[in-house]
Amino acid sequence: MDAFRFSISWARLIPSGKVKDGVNKEGVKFYNALIDELIANKDFRDFSRVCFEEFGDKVKMWTTINEPYVITVAGYDTGNKAVGRCSKWVNSQCQAGDSGSEPYIASHHLLLAHAAAVHEFRKCNKTSKDGQIGIVLSPLWFEPYDSTSLEDKEAVKRAVAIELDWNKLLKSSDFIGFHRKKCYIAHLPHVDPARPRFKTDQQLEWRVTNHSNHKMGPEEERRILYSVPEGLRKVLNYIKDKYNNPTVYIKENGINDYDDGTKSKDEILSDIFRIKYHEDHLQQLHKAIIEDGCDVRGYYVWSLLDNFEWEHGYSTRFGLYYVDYDNNLKRYPKDSVNWFKQFLSRIVVKSD
């Protein structure tokens, strides 16, 4: 393993959320111990400053906000993730919200928070001289529902623009971090103007099959994620061509196993689909770097360990290591661990 990415909990470091109420020294101690072990082996702005001052001499790469798109769209448009706000007609489980306005308000303030954190990072004299800071995005890639349809091709352009055409945001980062998980088919939708929402403002419909009913790629059991490795190469080339080939780190990429309690541990440890998923994506990454010249510096697997996954809880397992939640969190390596050990020993992955 060349790198390990982890989050710093705001609540653990500053329990009340306000620096004026005090910094939790035990929280600082915890993260210092964690970082040491790894080495051996406005409110948001203030929170960022405390992180930089306490850990900046050790940590060389910082990201401010993880997946702002998911926070705003899934939290304020569809309402299926925290904070669970949306228009009632979008999701009946939402108790309050406005899918037509709140995603934009949340996005605006997330970007302001990112900018404020970057400003504090630049000012802090305790950060490493070669330290870098960025934000982690989660861009989707789209293909036209009908490759002969001009309307569907235009829908793809709008979709990608919404995902990646944010000039001011990119200029506030030393690198671009992004998560690679999904591709969709874009189709011109029929929109009800009386029911505005963020997703329909894009004037496109997200689908997983094209007009010939062909799926984007192999799917995992719950049909939430699909393996479309070519999309990774296309996203990287889009960023390279539009933004003069900036430095990129793929901060997350992975596929899940569904654990509904009926599978044995051995069944889950045999994660052939995950191995194939990463092998295919790494081959496309190799092409993007070697053949296309994309400046990609890192690839982080999501995730090292099984963990609590948003609204899916513990039923969705992304880890290279199986975590036994009923037996003191004991860890067991899945077959993908051995595959990655071989890969990281610099055995060449063939490029077709």
Automatic annotation (TrEMBL):
Its family remark reads: Belongs to the glycosyl hydrolase 1 family.
Reaction(s) this enzyme catalyzes, per UniProt: a thioglucoside + H2O = a sugar + a thiol
Q: What is its EC number?
A: 3.2.1.147
Entry keyword Methyltransferase: no
State its location(s). Vacuole
Q: What is this protein called?
A: thioglucosidase
Enzyme class, top EC level, equals hydrolase
**What task does this protein carry out?**
Degradation of glucosinolates (glucose residue linked by a thioglucoside bound to an amino acid derivative) to glucose, sulfate and any of the products: thiocyanates, isothiocyanates, nitriles, epithionitriles or oxazolidine-2-thiones.
Q: Which GO terms describe its cellular component?
A: vacuole
Sorted alphabetically, the Gene Ontology BP terms of this entry are: carbohydrate metabolic process; glucosinolate catabolic process; response to salt stress
Q: Name any one Pfam family assigned in the record.
A: Glyco_hydro_1
- The yes or no answer to whether the keyword Secreted is present is no
The record's annotation in InterPro entries points to: GH, Glyco_hydro_1
Q: Which UniProt keywords apply?
A: Vacuole
User: Which GO molecular function, any one, fits this protein according to its record?
Assistant: beta-glucosidase activity
